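quick one
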Amino acid sequence: PSANAALLSLGQKHTTHGLGRVIDDAIIENASGSYMSFDDGRTMLDFTCGIGVTSLGHCHPQISKAAADQCMSVVHGQCSIAFHTPYVRLIEELIPMMPHPSLDSFFFWNSGSEAIEAALKIARIATGRQNIICMQSAYHGRTFGAMAVTRSKTVYSAGVHPIMPGVFQTPYPYFHPLGLPKETSPAELSEYCLKQLGIVLTSQTAPADTAAIIVEPILGEGGYVSTPVEFLQGLRRICDTYGIMLIIDEVQSGFSRSGDYFAIEQSGVKPDILVVAKGLANGFPLSGVISRKELTDKLVPGSMGGTYAGNAISCAAAVQVAKIMKGGDILPNVRARSKQAFDALNALATDPQVGKYILDVRGRGLMIGLEFKSPAGPAEIKSGLVSQASSDIPAGLAAKVMKRCVKKGLLILTTSAFEVLRLIPPLNITEEDMKKGLEIIADSVREVVK
Ligand code: PMP
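structure w/ 4'-deoxy-4'-aminopyridoxal-5'-phosphate:
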C-alpha cells in the first residue's frame, strides 16, 4: 500500500473526478530514465512518457542540470518585457531542425492547447478569414478554440457548448471510421478524403472564408494513425490553390517521436504554421508556434503573449533537448526500437490464438497503436463497420489489456478513440527494456482473451 495513504486520500478527496488517473492507489515518488517508482514500492517501466512528454527519459541529467543552473540566474524573464538568453538560444537551436526553412518565426507558450489557440489566431489574422477545417478524430486540446477543432471524443466538450464557431469537419483517411475495408490503400483513402474535403469547400465553407486546415501528421489521441503522405500532399495543394493556411499539429508526433525530427518530413509538405509542445522540453511546460515572419508580422504588437510564455527554465531545458536530438544517437534508436516493436506486435497480430482479437498494428517511430476489435453494437451495424466487429469479441479489450499491463509493471495508456493500446516509450529506451515491455504486452493480451 501507499506509504503516504493519508496524503493520497486527501488528493482523491479534493480533486475532481473530471481528472482521470491510471494509478489511483499510490503516489509517484521518483522517476528516472525509462522507469517510474511509486510510494507503495512498485517500480514500473514507463511506456507513456507522461503522454509523450519525457521523450528522453525522466530526469535526464543534462536537461535537469541545465534547468537547475537556469534557476540560479533567471527564473522568470517575461517575454513581453525582454528576451532572456534561453529564449533566443532555443530559436537558434531549433532553426536547423525545422521541417522547412521558411519556418522562421517562433513564439513560445506553455501548453499544446495554448499553442493551438495561437495558431488559429495567426491563421485568422494572416488570411483575414474566419473558418477552420479540422479532421474527424482529431485531438488538439481542451481550451475553447482547441476543443472546437477536437473531434476524437465528445467527453472533452460535452456540456460546455457553444464553443468556438466557424469550425468545419472533414473525414480523416483511416479505414475504420470511414467504414472501408482494412485493405484500402493509403492512396485510395487519401483520394476519397480529399474528395470529401472538396465537398466541404463547395458546400459548407467557401475557400474565401476558410483561414486554415488543421491536421496531425500522426493522429494522436484519436487512435495513433499515421496520416498518409498522399493526403498531406493533397492538403498542401488545396491550401496553395486557395490561399488557406495549413496548420500542422506536431504536439505529440514532433521532436523525433516519429523517427524523424518531425513527422511531416516524410511527406515533404511545408507547414504554414507548425505547432509543437510535449517532447520539446522533456517535461518542463513549453510549447511553440512556428510560422513565417511575413505572416506573423501581420499581428499587431501586444496581440500575442502570456505571463509565462517561453519560461526561462523550460527554454533552458529545451535547448538541451534540441542538442541531444541533434547529437546523432536518438533517431537511429527510435528507428531500431520501432522495428523491434512492430515485429513483436505484428507477430502477436498473426498469432493463431490471439490474432483474431487484433484489428490493426500501426503508427510510426515510437508512436505505435495496437488496435483491438470490438463487438458489433448498433453503432457499428449502422455505420457499416460490422465487417471489422464481431459478436464473439469481448468489449473494452484495450482498457482490459492496459490494466493487466499495469499490474505486471508496465505503465501504458489507451487512446481516447477506438480500442487502441498506445505505446509511447522513451526515445532512448534500451533494446532490453523494449523487449521487456513488449513481453508484458503479449502476456497481458493472452491472459485477457483466454
Ligand atoms: N495537440 C495534440 C496532437 C496533442 O496530442 C495534445 C495533447 N495530448 C494537444 C494538442 C494539447 O496539448 P496540451 O495537453 O499540452 O494542452
